[in-house]
Design goal:
Distance between the termini: 62 Å
Strand content: under 5%
Oligomer: single chain
Shape: globular
Order of helices and strands: HHHHHHHHHHHHHHHHHHHHH
């Protein structure tokens, strides 16, 4: 335990040092090199606010863009205080020091050549290529059921608007990259260390959108691969896997954030902790006594109901068919499938902890429930023996012939 803790501490400090270095290098770029495209991008965002009602493409708030936050992100490209060193500018980000703003590591260099529309175009290619890669890797590794479960969960997040919002895409890129890496190297990985680093990277680039996605989605996939393997493991082993990986992700995410406040305070000579503590207190408040329950209910309605209650109605028979298949073609691994259930509850735990934030930003925090949908689909897949189902279908086909 002591050696593992020391190893994780070394990794934590190394990743933290890399974050500080990357932010400092990004802020070494002179304002003059990014000013033109930054100004153009601001104009684009201003025009879009007049053209579109919050960029709402589906008639519900869950399908709208967040150009307000994107505007803040674009503002951060220009260093307003010329007297600051690159390190100070990196820690301050024009007074918005409670976040890392790691997206600027990519956004500042890109704005040397590209404006907001062109960056969206690049994001679209990167995002959908990663989605295709992860879909293929899941299909190859755990079968078509897992791959289509992943696709359904992402599509339900209004997938078409994710790459056109810089605020939305960051956490999804971390999620996709971590899932791809895990699928390629899962036999040779220290999973708790991996999740700690993923938690750190999430905190570095994310703007508190749906960070729990980078824990829940890879963890469900990890557990599903464990369920499908031939090696028999007791239930407590799966619970240990869930607890250890979740704890290390939380440590990575929380300590990385606290480290930013500490480093910012040391570099800037002013307390970042006061601002951070004030906002943390505000976002976790339970003003009316039942905010935590309301937050969970509202987020559920945004993700699973709204327009979806009409669109998904024809798929009810498909869901019922999946349940029937699970009952008729029961897998010998069905008992282990229940280890997926605790992870499916993670979004609602998040909503209850950050009650005020989850109520105020329901229109984007609802996407964390992709974890619940992905886990539910994987649960049905784990309950069903695919080979038995295929053999039965082949037998029926031969009988017809």
């Amino acid at each position: 335990m002591g050696k593992a803790a020391a190893r994780y501490a070394v990794w934590f400090m190394a990743v933290l040092a890399a974050f500080v270095l990357l932010m400092t290098l990004a802020h070494c770029i002179p304002n003059s090199m990014v000013a033109y495209h930054q100004e153009t991008s601001k104009t684009i965002l201003s025009m879009e606010s007049e053209w579109l009602w919050f960029g709402n493409f589906f008639g519900v708030d869950a399908g709208r863009l967040d150009n307000t936050t994107d505007n803040i992100m674009v503002d951060g490209v220009i260093i307003q205080d010329d007297g600051m060193s690159p390190l100070q500018a990196a820690m301050s980000v024009n007074g918005y020091s409670r976040y890392w703003h790691g997206y600027l590591v990519f956004l500042r260099p890109l704005m040397i050549w590209l404006n907001y529309w062109q960056i969206r175009y690049v994001n679209m290619f990167v995002f959908f290529l990663l989605v295709c890669a992860v879909f293929r890797l899941i299909g190859k590794r755990v079968g078509a059921g897992g791959a289509y479960s992943f696709a359904v969960a992402l599509i339900a997040c209004y997938i078409v608007i994710i790459p056109v919002s810089m605020q939305y895409i960051s956490v999804f890129l971390v999620m996709l990259c971590s899932m791809a890496y895990m699928l390629i190297r899962c036999e040779r990985m220290d999973m708790p260390l991996f999740f700690m680093i993923v938690g750190m990277v999430t905190n570095f680039v994310d703007f508190l959108t749906a960070p729990i996605l980078t824990l829940g989605m890879p963890l469900l996939l990890c557990l599903y691969m464990d369920i499908r393997c031939e090696e028999e493991r007791p239930w407590r082993w799966y619970l240990g896997r869930i607890f250890t990986c979740s704890l290390l992700w939380g440590i990575g995410y929380g300590l990385c954030w606290a480290s930013k406040w500490l480093i910012g305070t040391m570099v800037l000579g002013e307390s970042v902790f006061e601002s951070a503590a004030g906002h943390a207190s505000y976002w976790t408040q339970n003003n009316w006594g039942n905010d935590r329950i309301i937050a969970a209910e509202q987020n559920f309605a945004y993700f699973f109901l709204a327009q979806g209650k009409r669109v998904f109605f024809p798929f009810v028979p498909v869901i019922l068919g999946g349940i029937v298949c699970a009952a008729c073609f029961r897998s010998d691994k069905w008992k282990r499938a229940f280890c997926l259930v605790p992870v499916c509850t993670y979004p609602y735990v998040w909503y209850m902890v950050l009650a005020n934030h989850s109520l105020y930003h329901t229109w984007f925090t609802n996407r964390a429930q992709a974890i619940t949908l992905f886990g539910g689909c994987l649960f049905l897949c784990a309950l069903t023996d695919g080979r038995k189902l295929r053999d039965w279908l082949r037998k029926r086909k031969k009988q017809r012939v």
